[in-house]
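ARCHIVE RECORD
Type: protein–small molecule complex
Small molecule: magnesium ion
Source of inputs: curated submission
Record status: active
Notes field left blank by submitter.
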Amino acid sequence: MDKKKEGSFLSIISKSMRDTIDLIRSITAQGGSITMIQFEGVAKTYQSGKQEIHALNGIDLTVETGEIYGVIGFSGAGKSSLIRTVNLLERPSSGRVLIQGKDISTLSSKEIRTIRKDIGMIFQHFNLLNSKTVYHNVAMPLLLAKTPKADIEKQVKDLLDFVGLGDQAQKYPDQLSGGQKQRIGIARALATNPSVLLCDEATSALDPQTTKSILDLLRKINKEYNITILLITHEMGVIREICDKVAVLEAGKVIEQGSVFDIFSNPQQPTTKRFVRSVMNDELPESLLAQIQDAKSDNAIYRLQFTGNSVGKPFMSHVSRDFKVDLNVLFGNITELQGIPYGNLIVEFSGEPNEIKRALSSIRDSNIHIEEVNNYVS
Amino acid sequence: MSVNYEQILEALWETIYMTGAAFGFSLLIGFPLGILLVVTRKGHLLENEAVSKMLNIVINIFRSVPFIILMVAIIPLTRLIVGTSIGTAAAIVPLVFYAGPYIARLIENSLLEVDKGVIEAAQAMGASPMQIIFRFLIPEALSSLVLALTIAVVGLIGASAMAGAIGGGGLGDLAITYGYQRFDTLVMFITVAILVVLVQGVQSLGNVLSRTVRRS
Ligand SMILES: Nc1ncnc2c1ncn2[C@@H]1O[C@H](COP(=O)(O)OP(=O)(O)O)[C@@H](O)[C@H]1O
Ligand SMILES: [Mg+2]
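STRUCTURE (tokenized, with ligand):
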């Protein structure tokens, strides 16, 4: 065997061994089902003239099969750069992206085109062909794949019915509303029957009501077809509405990640807190704030957070009966996160400091999270 | 009047023939070049700095030579291709050298108008570069391409009249030989009138065509 052959033989062996290890790792990671998308130390640096822009700085994220995973961040945080590495619209400068355990950066351009058919994508500005009918837009991925005409007709009809545009097939995109255009985009993305759907700010150009209807459609796609969804957004409402998990991106780094419930009920980083507050409506009203600041200092004001089964416990009557304290509810709300009830109360405690202390510790014991409001406000 | 109607008709036919043939050949050269100009750009489908630079330089050279000079300068080449440097067929050669690079630029311009997002969507659905060019770029730009090519045809009509100056035949030849050199104002007037009508007609046709292909 000559040297050159041996070298390439060895490299093939080592590559396939590495692929196998990746695959086994991704299978064992999640009780038998394959991890859908895995970012491993993904970095992206753009060259802009003489300047280097570090859009992504070592991203590690795992998106499991069947999840709806949301990435949130302010404009310029690197969200688009991140999502675009999944279908190699952007190549990572370093690090790897694994799709179902497969390192996509080692694929040939032909293999990349094949894997892209398994990864649908929708866009903020829809990116439809304005010169083609709705029908033709949705049929395009099938035309590219040289699907027989009769099959195309049937599939496009089914897809348009699914997204609720069955009667608009012969219209042109510019005759339709933003929400309808995004539905065309979704139908087009589903035409190749993908395992993953990437959503790049898919609802950011839409009004709140339309946004909700599109999110409902995405949830339906996730449930009915078990399509894994990775979406990026700057709107926390979108995350709350449909995501299972969320990662917060800032300056190209993941600063916080976890289940939507955990992040919303207990955000750690300042940026995360800002995002959570933008939708949770648990800010104290201005007038109330002024009142608190004016109040006598011996009255203590606390924020109580209930989650899951602690909602609905009659703790107030217990506390006022068992301890010498008076409770005054200043503000409160209850919402739902991922189907779990989640409540927030701002309560003023008056009484002996010692009694208040005991009352608080008893409340803590019944799984209610407590925070002093003055800290919170500052 | 020093010419008869048959001569005018023949000159008109020569103009149409020169313009048409030159347009056909120019399109054959300019269309692929226009596409290449776009897709070899930085960050585009088939980014290639060397090809892009070279194309741009060559096209700019041809575009910067005035037609009347180009015509004279390539006479040896014209002789080589057509066998003579005089007559209608001979005029087509410089016209192609004039309009080919021009059309390449016009096509580049039209294709650049296509939303980058559309190309991205095409890439995301796994389209090959060829599929992106023929199924996305060109259909989306078609309406604007038709208008651009209309401009090219109008330009060619003007240039073909100039080709008459070196005995290329056509309306320009008629206007110069009879209208200018023999002071026949009527001939001059008629040829100019015919050219105006011709250009108007081409432009209207282009407008209508552009509108009809906007949606396909
Ligand atoms: N093609 C590019 N060339 C140079 N800089 C870029 C490019 N794309 C994005 N950037 C820069 O990278 C950073 C992250 O951008 P992006 O991923 O689009 O963020 P987001 O989607 O969160 O707004 C920004 O500073 C942006 O200006
Ligand atoms: Mg973005």
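CURATOR ANNOTATION: The longest strand of chain A covers residues 35-48.
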